[in-house]
């Protein structure tokens, strides 16, 4: 006969559980004992945590701009690496005497540090409305007092390292800006020296001197024209004088002193007319005007110095002296004066032409100097702009350094310090309670299911009808005698006592799991003493 399936009738299942109650109670009782032993014997791990607030800088950023990295996540990552470094963790191990039992003392230092690092956690708190503004530090250990002390020490390390790191970063930034400022200052002075040397080397050819050079060039060209005009007039006078001298040599004349004096007077009058003509065109300082005035004064002096006796004696002579081929000293004097004037004018013209050449070259070279000077000025302006920017940043960095030294910048502040934990976080007693109770019931239920599944006997009249396809006319109940009834009562009592004991163990395990080991043990001690 094939094995019969287990009916899903609730009444049948309840009757089955009552019938197989020992199979349920014994595994459950054993599970409760195991759970109580585990709850008492498993090592207790306590955890303490502290909440640290990231406090913004006290000085408004509109007045002082911080030069420290303002991303809390980045700085916390860096701080975590520093605080959880080998050197710092070794210091914590020595300070709080961690891993001090005999078994742990034999561990390698690397294993101790790795174990300690696993028990420390740093969690960043985030808020959608603002950036990260707090973080928590947690530590786990078997001793509640050690957990609290180590957690607070880690919080102090984070706060101190943050202050040191911010100050070091601010000082480092300030030093970097200072070195760059000195380097840029040296470059600026170098370009300034080049600019000064260039101006000194090409003085007179600079763009700002172009207008002055053009005005000087105009005056020189005007002066050269006047000089050439005067030279032309001198040449004309010289040619006239030479023609007159040639005429005197060719025609003999009888010169009488009185007639000579009249001729000189006429010459003076002629020169005065010429002087008036020159004054209408030139000033008193013009060379021709000065020269003509000098000649007039000299001739007037000569006339004034001729005595009348000379004229009388000349007249008493009765007859003039015939002179052929001779020239008067007056003409020689004029001739020499004109030659001297021409030499001076030619020298003046040559000097003026040389100066004109110099100033023309300056004017021609001005565009070239302008381009070269523009390149130097552009370099100077770029370096000057960079220098001014670095100087401004350097001043801001010095203010930021002072702010960090006075602890007016962004800081970490302990919001919730670590307290001594009262309840262990490991093992999780609630999970242990559920797992142990479930395991005890599952084992008993599984055994009952296997027994019933492998039992191929008929359990109900319906099983007979279903298997034989014949109706059951009647059923005969089990006949129980007095001895069997007695044994059944004893079994009921024993099962009730055993169930009560199992329930007590269940209650004790529940207290251990939900209330805690120490409070439960204290409660048991009080109950025993009472």
From TrEMBL:
UniProt keyword Cell membrane present: yes
Any one annotated GO CC term: plasma membrane
InterPro entries on file: Bact_polysacc_biosynth/exp, GNVR, LPS_length_determ_N, XrtA_polysacc_chain
Keywords: Cell membrane, Coiled coil, Membrane, Transmembrane, Transmembrane helix
Topology term for the membrane: Multi-pass membrane protein
Residue ranges crossing the lipid bilayer per the database entry: 21-40, 432-451, 492-517
Residues forming coiled coils: 174-281, 335-393
GO MF, one example: protein tyrosine kinase activity
Protein name as catalogued: Chain-length determining protein
Source organism: Desulfosarcina ovata subsp. sediminis
């Amino acid at each position: 006969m094939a094995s019969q399936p287990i009916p899903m009738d609730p009444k049948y299942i309840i009757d089955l559980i009552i019938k197989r109650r020992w199979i349920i109670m014994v595994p459950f009782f054993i599970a409760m004992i195991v759970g109580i032993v585990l709850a008492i014997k498993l090592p207790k791990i306590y955890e303490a945590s502290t909440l640290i607030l990231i406090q913004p800088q006290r000085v408004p950023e509109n007045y002082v701009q911080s030069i420290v990295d303002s991303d809390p996540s980045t700085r916390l990552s860096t701080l975590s690496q520093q605080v959880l470094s080998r050197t710092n963790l070794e210091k914590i191990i020595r300070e709080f005497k961690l891993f001090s039992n005999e078994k742990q003392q034999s561990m390698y230092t690397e294993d101790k540090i790795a174990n300690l690092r696993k028990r420390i956690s740093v969690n960043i708190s985030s808020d959608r409305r603002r950036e990260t503004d707090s973080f928590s530090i947690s530590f786990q250990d078997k001793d509640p007092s050690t957990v609290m002390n180590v957690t607070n020490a880690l919080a102090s390390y984070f706060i101190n390292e943050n202050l040191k790191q911010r100050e070091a970063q601010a000082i480092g930034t300030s030093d970097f800006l200072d070195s760059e400022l000195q380097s840029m200052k040296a470059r600026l002075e170098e370009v300034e020296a080049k600019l000064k040397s260039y101006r000194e080397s090409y003085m007179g050819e600079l763009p700002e001197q172009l207008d002055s050079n053009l005005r000087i060039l105009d005056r020189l060209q005007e002066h050269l024209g006047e000089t050439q005009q005067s030279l032309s007039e001198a040449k004309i006078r010289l040619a006239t004088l030479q023609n007159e001298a040639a005429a005197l040599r060719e025609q003999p004349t009888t010169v009488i002193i009185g007639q000579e004096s009249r001729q000189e007077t006429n010459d003076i009058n002629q020169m005065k007319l010429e002087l008036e003509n020159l004054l209408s065109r030139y000033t008193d300082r013009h060379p021709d005007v000065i020269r003509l005035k000098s000649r007039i004064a000299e001739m007037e002096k000569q006339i004034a110095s001729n005595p009348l006796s000379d004229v009388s004696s000349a007249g008493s002579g009765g007859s003039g002296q015939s002179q052929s081929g001779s020239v008067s000293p007056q003409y020689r004097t004029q001739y020499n004066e004109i030659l001297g004037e021409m030499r001076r004018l030619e020298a003046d013209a040559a000097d003026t032409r040389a100066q004109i050449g110099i100033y023309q070259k300056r004017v021609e070279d001005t565009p070239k100097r302008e381009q070269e000077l523009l390149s130097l000025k552009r370099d100077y302006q770029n370096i000057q702009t960079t220098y001014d920017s670095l100087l401004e940043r350097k001043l801001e960095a010095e203010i930021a350094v002072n702010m960090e030294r006075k602890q007016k910048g962004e800081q970490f502040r302990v919001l919730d310090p670590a307290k001594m934990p009262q309840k262990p976080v490991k093992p999780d007693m609630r999970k242990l309670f559920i797992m142990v109770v479930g395991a005890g019931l599952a084992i008993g239920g599984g055994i009952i299911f296997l027994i019933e599944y492998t039992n191929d006997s008929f359990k109900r009249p319906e099983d007979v009808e279903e298997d034989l396809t014949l109706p059951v006319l009647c059923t005969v109940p089990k006949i129980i005698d007095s001895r069997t009834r007695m044994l059944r009562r004893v079994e009921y009592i024993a099962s009730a006592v055993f169930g009560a004991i199992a329930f007590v163990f269940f209650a004790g395990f529940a207290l251990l799991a939900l209330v805690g080991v120490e409070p439960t043990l204290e409660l048991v001690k009080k109950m025993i003493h009472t």
